[in-house]
Design goal:
The structure is a single chain. With 242 residues, this protein is an alpha+beta fold. It has 2 domains: 2-108 and 214-241, no CATH class; 118-208, Chitinase A, domain 3, CATH 3.10.50. It contains 11 helices and 4 strands; from the N terminus they run αααααααβααβαββα. The protein has a 4-stranded antiparallel β-sheet with strand order 2-1-4-3. The two termini are 23 Å apart.
Length: 242
């Protein structure tokens, strides 16, 4: 199994291990080292091949998605060349994960399909139950603007986006809030519900039902890759705990 062969190639002595652990860089170091050991034979050597790989990346992913997929503290990258080298490693790692976890990707998607839906909604929350009922009345009977009332009265950070949240993956909102939204009609204001001491008024704006396109395959493959890395890190760390 490739787990054992990769973990044996990760060379780190006890002093380096302890030092990295002491400065809270051990997890990141082991992760990037495992990725490098896994894909290093595939890293292009010529500048032309590297440029082609980088161009291919940006044809598929914009800046926002790139930052999301990189999953690396960008403040640690000192120059453009380091960033491109990281991008090349990440691109090759994604392809490796897609190839080696191809069956698991489909299984993961089918088992958790609804959690990959993207949901956009509006939220207004307050600790005051009476105020929530009053605001609900203003929204439904007086037809006042959800955006304006959220900005004026919402007690969470969503007030700065006029109550609009998303699109976010459907597993992110509180389960009780998600259940309310998924059983709601688009643009219908829902009566206040109590969640963890908050009185919440919500309105569903849009649901984009997930399909297993290349971006979602990429995200799932990285999730599976992280699980694989975690198993290797435990194997490596076990050597130093004995």
């Amino acid at each position: 199994m490739f787990e054992n062969s990769i973990s044996k190639k990760v060379n780190i002595n006890i002093d380096e291990y302890n030092k990295l652990s002491e400065i809270n860089l051990l997890e990141l170091f082991l992760k990037e080292l495992i990725i490098l050991e896994t894909i290093k034979e595939s890293i292009p050597q010529s500048s032309k091949d590297k440029e082609l790989l980088i161009k291919s990346w940006f044809k598929k992913f914009d800046k926002k998605i790139t930052n999301e997929l990189i999953d690396f503290p960008l403040k640690e990258i000192s120059n453009e060349q380091d960033f491109f080298n990281l991008l090349i490693r990440k691109s090759l790692w994604i392809e490796w994960c897609k190839e080696n976890f191809s069956n698991e990707i489909s299984i993961e998607f089918n088992e958790k399909k609804s959690s990959y839906d993207l949901i956009t909604y509006q939220l207004l929350r307050t600790k005051n139950k009476n105020l929530s009922n009053e605001l609900y009345f203003k929204l439904t009977e007086d037809e006042e603007s959800f955006e304006d009332l959220s900005f004026q009265f919402s007690e969470g950070s969503e007030r700065f986006s006029k109550g609009i949240i998303g699109p976010v993956r459907a597993n992110l909102p509180h389960p009780k809030l998600l259940d309310c939204l998924k059983n709601s009609v688009i643009e219908k204001v829902n009566p206040p519900i109590e969640i963890d001491g908050w009185w919440i008024i919500c309105k569903l704006k849009h649901i984009e039902y997930a399909k297993l396109d290349d971006l979602l395959k990429t995200k799932i493959s990285l999730e599976l890759g992280n699980k694989y890395i975690d198993s290797l890190k435990k194997e490596i760390c076990k050597k130093f705990s004995n």
